[in-house]
Design goal:
By secondary structure, this protein is an alpha+beta fold. The chain is built from five helices and three strands. The protein has a three-stranded antiparallel beta sheet with strand order 1-2-3.
Length: 162
């Protein structure tokens, strides 16, 4: 009896060894011998797409910032020009002041001529994306973002004449 129980424990030990070896060989077969650099290759493929996506998001954010700044500059320059006694030069200076907060060049601010009889003021701000964008000029050139603000002046135009 004693031999039988020893024999059983030896078989149990052997079978557990075989089972472990079998599991290892199955997982090794699944992986295959040629998958040693698979992670590196997958990263190289995905990394390019990821980098292009990040740079595209940065470029769109910068274009949106330029568009919003041009709208604000046109609006505040027109607000400066509608008050009595204001000149076109003052309106353009206000637009330049706002645009220069972020961009040092690459934009133009134009105001319609203003005199005593002017009823509407128009301020146009244009931003050349070739001068303010990072990567867009490599693919597209000559794009201009434009914003115009038109406002009625606050000058007296004889409403109360009898």
């Amino acid at each position: 009896m004693k031999k039988h129980s020893t024999r059983r424990s030896t078989l149990a030990r052997r079978s557990s060894r075989y089972r472990t070896a079998t599991l290892r060989s199955r997982s090794a077969k699944r992986r295959g011998p040629n998958r040693t650099a698979a992670t590196l290759v997958e990263f190289a493929l995905v990394c390019n797409v990821l980098i292009v996506t990040i740079f595209t998001c940065m470029e769109f954010a910068r274009m949106n910032m330029a568009r919003n700044l041009a709208q604000d500059a046109a609006y505040f320059a027109a607000r400066t020009a509608i008050v009595p006694g204001a000149t076109a030069a003052e309106a353009e200076a206000e637009g330049e002041r706002i645009m220069s907060a972020i961009f040092s060049s690459g934009y133009t601010v134009d105001c319609s001529p203003i005199d005593e009889d002017t009823e509407e003021v128009s301020v146009r701000v244009a931003v050349q994306l070739d001068d303010v964008a990072f990567f867009l000029p490599l693919f597209l050139s000559g794009i201009e973002l434009e914003s115009t603000a038109n406002m009625q002046t606050e000058r007296y135009s004889g409403f109360y004449e009898q």
